[in-house]
Write a sequence for this structure.
């Protein structure tokens, strides 16, 4: 009983101070209680014990089972699937194997006590399973068996118990109904190097409870796996929230408080135009992506809000309005050089210019050559006016044609500059007359050539008279 009391006290200290094994990183502590069976037969000894693993599963003939809670263990998770633990167990042995002829050998309910420490390695990751957890372990401990016919010890000091240290190897399997509750079964081989304690197998089945994990935000996800441990979240997002419930966690949701679509990073598209509301200038009115979600009723490439003519297609350069053609000549006002006067496309919207015929052009030149000026002056003689009126009448017949008036002199005198200036003044004098009589100044130009372009010889009086002339020509 003294050793039993020691065993119970040691176990209580273990549970009190927790210097033992773990289960997993979320619930690092595991406690298990159950029943155990001891089998001293298949351990590689002489009869009444047998060879290693001989009749290993002969429960009826070889397993000594105490039909009550007889084993308790505590473990603490370390890392990477490893945990460390301690266990205490008690049993009564009534079976010690069999004789060589197979006769069962019994013993008289020998008390069995053990306390063991172990390192366990979970194989869950290896087999990619969570519910079913295979594991292996190794460790050591101290076991006592009450002295009997096949185990005596001179070192028992009258206690009636033969004890020794053991080196242990374990294989087992656990099934977890939830994160915290499961059943576990294991077999441990305990090898003693001292004669007073037989080698043996100990099997156990029990209920295991994992605990010690923290869930600060109460979302059912342990803090060690919770990327947002201070805020309740969802398992699918590793404990982070999805406030708007759109299936996109808040940290990746551009609009975390408005349910939206994944294609828009969690933002909604209220008007269904394919532009998320946070990028849609007109979120309540279906529009075009190219126009930041705003409509373009006339499809002219300009959003209605910026379109001066939203229902009439027009170029952006004209604020969305069509270009006008005020004179209806088929040439838009922007390209029409004569926007208020019908014309032709070929003439940039202006009326086609009707020019004098060759006959009329020759007649103008011939008429103009007969204009007489006072000698050495630019003033007209009286007989020049009928000719000027005839010229004016011809120019009015061609209102879009432009003309140039050229002045010429003979070579009389030695002052060429005087002759040049005189030719310019006479040409200008004719232009002034034509303007005063209804010909647009914009259609007329004048130039003087002095004595440079004679049409007759200046050696005769007749020739010099011909050279003193004015010519009205069609402008090129």
């Amino acid at each position: 009983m003294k050793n039993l009391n020691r065993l119970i006290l040691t176990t209580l200290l273990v549970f009190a101070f927790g210097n033992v094994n773990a289960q997993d990183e979320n619930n690092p502590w595991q406690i298990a209680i159950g029943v155990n069976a001891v089998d001293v037969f298949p351990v590689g000894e002489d009869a009444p014990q047998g060879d290693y693993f001989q009749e290993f599963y002969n429960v009826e003939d070889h397993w000594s089972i105490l039909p009550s809670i007889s084993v308790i263990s505590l473990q603490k998770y370390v890392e990477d699937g490893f945990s460390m633990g301690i266990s205490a167990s008690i049993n009564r042995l009534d079976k010690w194997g069999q004789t060589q002829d197979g006769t069962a050998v019994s013993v008289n309910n020998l008390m069995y006590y053990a306390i063991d420490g172990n390192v366990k390695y979970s194989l869950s990751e290896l087999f990619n399973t969570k519910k079913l957890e295979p594991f292996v372990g190794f460790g050591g401990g101290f076991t006592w068996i009450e002295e009997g016919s096949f185990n005596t010890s001179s070192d028992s000091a009258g206690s009636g118990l033969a004890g020794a240290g053991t080196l242990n190897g374990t294989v087992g399997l656990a099934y977890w109904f939830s994160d915290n509750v499961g059943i576990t079964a294991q077999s441990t081989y305990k090898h003693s190097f001292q004669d007073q304690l037989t080698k043996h197998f100990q099997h156990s089945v029990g209920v295991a409870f994992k605990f010690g994990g923290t869930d600060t935000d109460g979302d059912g996800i342990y803090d060690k796996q919770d990327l947002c441990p201070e805020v309740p979240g969802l398992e699918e997002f590793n404990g982070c929230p999805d406030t708007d419930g759109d299936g996109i966690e808040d940290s990746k949701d551009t609009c975390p408080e408005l349910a939206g679509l994944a294609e828009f990073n969690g933002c909604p598209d209220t008007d269904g135009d394919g532009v998320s509301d946070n990028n849609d200038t007109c979120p309540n009115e279906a529009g075009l992506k190219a126009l930041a979600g705003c409509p373009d009723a006339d499809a002219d490439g300009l959003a209605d809000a910026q379109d001066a003519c939203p229902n009439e297609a027009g170029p952006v350069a004209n604020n969305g309005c069509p270009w006008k053609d005020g004179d209806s000549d088929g040439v838009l006002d922007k390209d029409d050089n004569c926007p208020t006067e019908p014309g032709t496309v070929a003439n940039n919207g202006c009326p086609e210019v009707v020019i004098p015929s060759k006959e009329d052009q020759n007649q103008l030149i011939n008429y103009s050559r007969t204009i007489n000026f006072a000698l050495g002056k630019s003033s007209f003689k009286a007989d020049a006016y009928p000719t000027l009126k005839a010229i004016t009448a011809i120019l009015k017949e061609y209102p879009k044609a432009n003309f140039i008036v050229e002045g010429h002199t003979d070579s009389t005198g030695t002052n060429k500059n005087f002759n040049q200036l005189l030719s310019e003044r006479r040409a200008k004098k004719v232009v002034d007359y034509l303007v005063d009589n209804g010909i647009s100044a914009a259609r007329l130009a004048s130039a003087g050539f002095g004595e440079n372009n004679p049409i007759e010889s200046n050696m005769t009086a007749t020739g010099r008279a011909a050279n003193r002339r004015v010519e009205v020509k069609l402008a090129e």
The mean pLDDT is 88. The first strand starts at residue 29 and ends at 39. The longest helix spans residues 416-436. The two ends are 140 Å apart (CA to CA).
